[in-house]
Amino acid sequence: MNTSFEVHGRSLIAGQMASPNEATVTRAFHGFNPVDGSALPPAFYPAHAADVDAAVLAAVAAAPVYGVLSGRARGQFLRRIADGIDAAAGCLIEHAHAETALPRPRLTGEVARTSGQLRHFADVVEEGSWVMARIDTGNPDRTPPKPDVRSMLRPLGPVAVFGASNFPLAFSVCGGDTASALAAGNPVIVKAHPAHPATSEVAGRIVAEAVEACGLPSGVFSLLFDDGHEVGSALVTHPEICAVGFTGSLRGGKALMDLAAKRPRPIPVYAEMGSVNPVFILPGALADRAEQLATGLHGSFTLGGGQFCTKPGLVFAPAGASSAFAERLQQLTNAGPAFSLLTSGIAAVYEKSVAARGHLQTAAGATAGSGWGAKTVLLETTFAGLAAEPALAEEVFGPTTLLVHAHGKAEMLQAARALEGHLTATILGTEADLVEYEDLLLVLESKVGRLIFNAFPTGVEVCHAMVHGGPFPATSDGRSTSVGSQAIFRFARPVAYQGLPQSVLPEALRDDNPLGLLRLWNGAWNSTRTNKL
Ligand code: NAP
Predict the structure, then answer these.
(1) Residue of the CA atom closest to atom 25 of ligand 1
(2) The pTM is what?
(3) Is 448 near ligand 1, meaning CB less than 6 Å away?
(4) Domains of the chain and any CATH numbers
(5) pLDDT in tens, 260-269
(6) Distance CA 99, CA 323 (A)
(7) Are 39 and 9 in contact (CB under 8 A)?
(8) Bond from prior residue into 337 cis (ω within 30 degrees of 0)
């Protein structure tokens, strides 16, 4: 297994390196070092329309073969990618560090998360019950006769995935969207994020190698480069693409949702977009541990330079009682280092957004030097101030948060009711606080995908119960999650088979349950081969 890869700056179409054409050869782009803004070698050539078409057609050809592969074989493939990532960890980390300025220890953790989530999906497909087999046996003696109906989840077909800028590994080329779409049995075409092209190419080569090593059709995976929107738009509007996975801005996600909806055959777009992740600090917790809460919150909103979709960007605390907490938060912010942000665009939007909120600034960290640096900024206002300027509740990507001093439970509740959809909401409180604020919990539950008690929202465990989603605008479809094994359901659809003979039914639906799956047999869940409880 390769531990290192040479980077060529070319898209990978069904295992083959693409060549630039006359139009794209002049549009070469580079990754950049965020610390000093210098361009990094090599040059990357954007894919062109024929590349998009070739990648999609190869995926179409691969889909029927890959879609019926056994869970065991699909699991082996996912494990092979995971092993490839672990083997090339050093190479991936060095490229990602150069292209994103994220610290090596954080990237080391991200490698483990990336290979770990691939193995997590391998476990799921090898066990197999995720296909949700349901069997209602027929009864010819009933009037009218009852048909034999059996259903299970099947793959959708070729899926387009857009890598995120802020997780160059775990939400990028072989991140959660790719892992879950492949696990469900779909070929994947990734549009690489232009902020980390070399990291993307190495990750793409690892997947392509695994495709070859497992003897799969080469069209199971392709990787396309572009530093504009042409390739992404062409992918989403390609008639043979069946679904889209995206992590990024609300603007980008909404643009792709609109493109997908306008197609002659609309397709689902699973977009994980912005979130402010409101935090509610309740009186009991503030009285007990103001200092600890301030330290925890500061660590959370500055983690990764504040470039997490789960960054707590809006914090409500009881007015009056919150002064010691606010003072400590100001001290920590003033003492904080400068950060290098991921891209010049993210740094420019951050600077503009923080400047527009300058009248609320109560503390700021070290001033950034060269490159795409940013200083940490603490903003403070009152509930009335927020109500007068609702735009303050919008996401600012980077190391800043807005502390809102709210008077009493009534203002906290009003603030919660006014929230849009978010990925998370956090309550920092005592059990007595929870009893008193029970109605706050109910309001928040309707607004978010994950409700957190006495912890901070940054850090999303990859597990079976995780929900990393939430109502629009946090995501395009609040019924889904992009992290954890339930993410697989985004890329599958139920198909019912009526009256088919045993010999042609998928194994998952045969009477003798050869795969030993947990199935709903005439209304009762069981996993026995005789289907008797
Ligand atoms: P982005 O601008 O949304 O871009 C994400 C990906 O989508 C990129 O590959 C981008 O291509 C593509 N894209 C964007 N708009 C498109 C369009 N109209 N048509 C086709 N493709 C399109 O996100 P970003 O560059 O990572 O960061 C910008 C902002 O996104 C941040 O300031 C932050 O607010 C947000 N963000 C959110 C998350 C999250 O976890 N939810 C993660 C990262 C960033 P190009 O780069 O070539 O334009």
Answers:
(1) 165
(2) 0.96
(3) no
(4) 12-18+40-134+143-273+483-488 (3.40.605.10), 279-453 (3.40.309.10)
(5) 999 999 999 9
(6) 40
(7) no
(8) no
